[in-house]
Amino acid sequence: MEFASYEEAADFWDTHDTTDYLDSLETVSLETVDMKLRQFEVEVDADLIKVRCGG
Length: 55
Description:
Structural class: mainly alpha
Helix content: 25-40%
Number of helices: 2
Radius of gyration: 25 Å
Number of domains: 1
């Protein structure tokens, strides 16, 4: 099944159920991501750092 645009696909799937097309679907492999490896940067006020470090 192919669509000319994302909008066409969205319109189709808004009115159809994927379970009616299980024979047309194919299995795909996905790469997993370890979410524990994510890093976040948090800005800390310089005065708070001074207090924490005893300065």
